User: What shape does this take?
Amino acid sequence: ERPRDYGIRFGVLPTGPLNAITDVPGVRVGQVTIREGERVRTGVTAILPHAGNLFQQKSPAAIYIGNGFGKLAGYSQVEELGTLETPIVLTNTLSVPTAADALIDYTLSQPGNEQVRSVNPVVGETNDGFLNDIRGRHVTRQHVLTAIRDARTGAVAEGNVGAGTGTVCFGFKGGIGTASRKLPTSLGSYTVGALVQTNFGGVLQIAGMPAGVELGKYSFKENLDGSCMMVVLTDAPLDARNLKRLAKRAFMGLAKTGGIASNGSGDYVIAVSTAYQIPHDSKTPTDTLTLLRNDNTSALFMAAIEATEEAIINSLFAAKTMTGDQGHRIEELPVQRVVDYLKKAGQAR
Amino acid sequence: ERPRDYGIRFGVLPTGPLNAITDVPGVRVGQVTIREGERVRTGVTAILPHAGNLFQQKSPAAIYIGNGFGKLAGYSQVEELGTLETPIVLTNTLSVPTAADALIDYTLSQPGNEQVRSVNPVVGETNDGFLNDIRGRHVTRQHVLTAIRDARTGAVAEGNVGAGTGTVCFGFKGGIGTASRKLPTSLGSYTVGALVQTNFGGVLQIAGMPAGVELGKYSFKENLDGSCMMVVLTDAPLDARNLKRLAKRAFMGLAKTGGIASNGSGDYVIAVSTAYQIPHDSKTPTDTLTLLRNDNTSALFMAAIEATEEAIINSLFAAKTMTGDQGHRIEELPVQRVVDYLKKAGQAR
Amino acid sequence: ERPRDYGIRFGVLPTGPLNAITDVPGVRVGQVTIREGERVRTGVTAILPHAGNLFQQKSPAAIYIGNGFGKLAGYSQVEELGTLETPIVLTNTLSVPTAADALIDYTLSQPGNEQVRSVNPVVGETNDGFLNDIRGRHVTRQHVLTAIRDARTGAVAEGNVGAGTGTVCFGFKGGIGTASRKLPTSLGSYTVGALVQTNFGGVLQIAGMPAGVELGKYSFKENLDGSCMMVVLTDAPLDARNLKRLAKRAFMGLAKTGGIASNGSGDYVIAVSTAYQIPHDSKTPTDTLTLLRNDNTSALFMAAIEATEEAIINSLFAAKTMTGDQGHRIEELPVQRVVDYLKKAGQAR
Amino acid sequence: ERPRDYGIRFGVLPTGPLNAITDVPGVRVGQVTIREGERVRTGVTAILPHAGNLFQQKSPAAIYIGNGFGKLAGYSQVEELGTLETPIVLTNTLSVPTAADALIDYTLSQPGNEQVRSVNPVVGETNDGFLNDIRGRHVTRQHVLTAIRDARTGAVAEGNVGAGTGTVCFGFKGGIGTASRKLPTSLGSYTVGALVQTNFGGVLQIAGMPAGVELGKYSFKENLDGSCMMVVLTDAPLDARNLKRLAKRAFMGLAKTGGIASNGSGDYVIAVSTAYQIPHDSKTPTDTLTLLRNDNTSALFMAAIEATEEAIINSLFAAKTMTGDQGHRIEELPVQRVVDYLKKAGQAR
Assistant: This one.
């Protein structure tokens, strides 16, 4: 059960039907979970903004860096050109090169890309080295290609899956989480979806309530640290400039969960619009685009904040206690205790 | 009474003695409130990081832009050189030039500055044009010089004062607010102080509790918009790079109050360290500085988040209902109702 | 006579008919030169991208900061929203607030702007304090309003005029310069125009030839320093992202003249497209725009480099020896000697 | 013979003894050239700022992005923390992941790094896909590790070596180039060294002279495009902020060779100081650093401009005609013709 099933509310906007990033039409997610023996707890999550050839039909995109202690691949080209040309892959810190190489494999081998000699793989990561033998670099190119191949629309698994298999969040087991918001007709009917890989610290707040304090587990009482990858998709017709602004709001959503973007944190948001594509080749020197005006972005901003906040808490509700490398063990969030705590405050039912 | 007097808590770190930006030793604040007739509701707030000649003894500083729909003066030079060379002045949007001119007046006239031919005035603003006849530009240079001259250490007035005289926040009367955090000895004993000019919208949360929903007043239910200026001072020895990181955390504090950094928002954070100064002239080509390592910044980050969040809510608790230009009227936050609401949830006493 | 009249060539692209920023259709320039007595040597240059209400019909724009030791007003809003809503005004460092105030006056008083309560004045500057009594702040709002009112299409005066009245460049008299490039039909027939206010140092190169060395006047042999404001207009349909890229290329043009962007330099480029406007108000939530594709920007980049380089050298050829404040005297570039030097090298006729 | 041997001068500052990046004490360079059969023309160049454990003793560093159409790895962490923790590796576009993986191998295996679980590999690239079978990804981890292992002080091979094996510049054979400047005692005696991987287009200028025009080969006459990686080392005690400013000046050096930073260009500058290190672990919360004041950076800026310009031209003088993949052939710069041309203009002897 997800927080919303307990009557917990994050903000005021309605969710999409799945309350998932895949509520944005056409978006597909694929995940490979790698659990082997006592030590390997890692994986891959792939997000594809549309079903076509992503290189030939580039998606408008932007990346916002909340705190840059991370190894995300692909930043500068997205920043310069405003487009994404590969799937987005999330994995662990030391497997970024493997994932990037797999994205090159994938791109070079797509029909129509026979002449492609330049690819900008976008790979995000957090460090699962507490539960996972990260130095062993157990993610293979094949894992990544499988995640991409298996990507599909529909519900998205949360918790100890994919790139979230071995992550830790607020001292509890973290993982993959997702959520969405659907704007009312008066605000454009757009959908904003978020998917997160939670691996960070701070003072946990759930729907505002200081659960971390209640549970006695928070930064500087304990040594909590780490990172968060956030992916935000929308069908609103935003250009790269406004997508970067949208991405920044996801970071505000992280703040609302009590994250502090500590020194050691790699907090990145990749925002992509599915409303249109920029063709790699064109017979015309111009593109004619219908773009949302600045004035109409605020509701999307609020949607990105809410969806990201909820996606993070969703990851905590879904993740299960895990033992991993070196016998390290991380407990899951005590969901019932949290729900009872919120109930007393009138914030759950 | 301030929120903390009702037992409302923002985070986990202790406050400084005054719970104000002036807990950072040497920091002075001066405010001029301009209320004239039915239409003029504006003012000036000045913050001085030290008591010396600010131009000759520059303070390490950085400015973070949360959302840049604003007219802050002085950004690029602070960004390039990493120093502040004037008092920080806050006022209304259309009075930025006047305030900048006054800062030039002030700087040129300081003893020792007879040869100064270049001054980078730093002026922040929000738009008080709903309650104030902003087009009348009623702030004069003299107002600004008075605020600087009258700046002092000690308690800081909050609410409808200075640059917060005519502002509106979450649909209620906003204003000036301040708060601080004092790190425990184990984390370096540093103080972080925040001062805010609140004039923005979103879905108000007080210590996490969704007060805006409870009170039925929030963005897209009503038309709430606007900006927030944040000033963060610390005696921790940070360089400009880490001050910029600190500044970014203040923006996270804003997020925790339910701010959404809407399209029309000018959200800026000016962060300054009082731990050392950079002399304008020097006989040596180098400066020897003792700087906090990256690894030790996280507690300061958390302090900046907490202090900013509390400063914003403080501004709302202090501000009083105001009528102004065109008969516009903004109600104060119904403090008792809010406190009762938080009490029921166990978040106030 | 301008360098081109001596057969000096800057790059390979053809100029527009006037070889001026006003070759971009609709662009108007107005200048007020302020020379009074022995000490006052300053002025104002205003550039208007189109003849309509600039606030109601905003121009897509971007600002690139080469070196940020400067006091340019208006940066962050242009960066955030991608639009310009006032004339661009250039003046001296300490008169930026006066100019900004005048731009507010201008905007508030335009028919149709009766309800405007927020204006983002864009003002650039360099420091003419060697020849000009800059501390006296002799520029008035009226000077600025006059420059705007008198702005017109057609040829642009260069040298000791407007904001270039008192500037110094490479140790010689600097000033205002302008140039343009017109792309051939195969590259889109677009025009790129540059206007510069030259006040900087380095090792002067004219069409590549090391004239500064030849003339025995260059940085670190003498104490040369200072800033350069660059304004680039184009009728190519660029969005803000690509305008920022275009702006960066103007800075490359500065580099080609031997400028070094010294520590004390405030080097800013404001780039604006005249191809379309973004209306302040709109009945629709979207704008439909026809925008140049990334792939087709390179020729514009080259045009901006060439035009800026030439505009800088044009300013030096036009400026005349001047005596000013404190009896300071700056010699003009010895044009004939330079031409002879280039002739010998086959770079002039 | 290098340009300087022909009496060609770039700027006014003296070179270091080797006129190479290795004039900066302690800097080592290693290169592996990969030429196999008809199709493989690529390689690896590694730059190490000091001889110790680079992860444990991090070097202050910054990365400036001229034009970001590139795949450089490691940007955001360097930007956030201001330090470099691996060797810098240059290679071809599609081999960045391989090189990054090799840097992780290298770092994890260094004595003292047994507990390291996070590594930020810094890898730059340009696209050698015209002469090289880039899709074949012929660079192996072993190539990279060999380049690092073989890195040494002393003279640096230029032209068709290492990461420059298959590159093309201004339509001629490009490659690796290097140069340096040594400031006079009065300016601090610091050394600035540059190393470049040249693979870009524009209108070639050699010591200012329009050689590209003379040789009839330049952008938009022909289809020239591409990228340039620049690495700048200095023993001046700069912090990350000033290193970023220094890096930006290298991009100005590129501009002086006639580069235009076309849309397709990935132009990055990595700047590193060898004057001090930041230890990964420390018993104290602060570091005491002696840092060059802003005021004293300008001569270093000029040195970076000059050294980068000369390094680029050095790469062209050293590179030899090459035939590669698909029978593509790129001619070397006709050095004698160029020298004769410069001689006539008095710019060579």
